[in-house]
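Today's session is about reading a structure prediction critically. Students often jump straight to the picture, but the first step is always the sequence itself: look for stretches that repeat, for charged clusters, for runs of hydrophobic residues. Only then move on to the predicted structure, which in these notes is written as discrete structure tokens rather than atom positions. Here is the chain we will use throughout the hour.
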Amino acid sequence: MAALEVVSRARCFGGEQRVYKHRSAETGTDMRFAVFLPPGAGEGKRAPVVWFLSGLTCTEENFTVKAGAQRVAAELGLLVVAPDTSPRGEGVPDDPAGAYDFGLGAGFYVDATEQPWAKHYRMWSYVSRELPALVEAELPAADMGRQGIMGHSMGGHGALTLALRNPGRFAAVSAFAPIASPMNCPWGEKALGGYLGPDRAAWRGHD
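Below is the predicted structure for this chain, in token form.
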């Protein structure tokens, strides 16, 4: 099986909107992510990469379907990558109470250390290492020497922490209504406590 399986592709503002699926070593599940290729990308032309991290309850689909960012990305020649927000599939645990702010759709871009989350909820390693390496290896149109990152809500939190913990990697970082201090808000305390345990010192890398 190829590293990347094309789920869908559609012409869009002179470029192409794609959705890929692959087997993730970090999460132990199939993962999906969306890519917008601007006009000319992949035809001997490389494009700067902008990562968009979505918020609670979202998938790779929300930003690409609702934001209309492809028009501007096409004009500016940007390749936009939008990953899912959590692992999914058989055997992946969810919030026992079915809450929207923990479990499926709410990976918080951390590597869980607590059970039963630790096996699959490794979104920090997925978005910071595994997925970028896969994009670089499989999508020659992606210029990984020029990267920016942005996100909304939970994804704004993820964008800020990835940029701050990887100085020099991103030329720009933007966060829209981010959970900027998860150690000091109910959503963040629930997520970090659930995924990383009660020792607040272990949360600091994500605050």
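Discussion point for the tutorial: The two ends are 39 Å apart (CA to CA).
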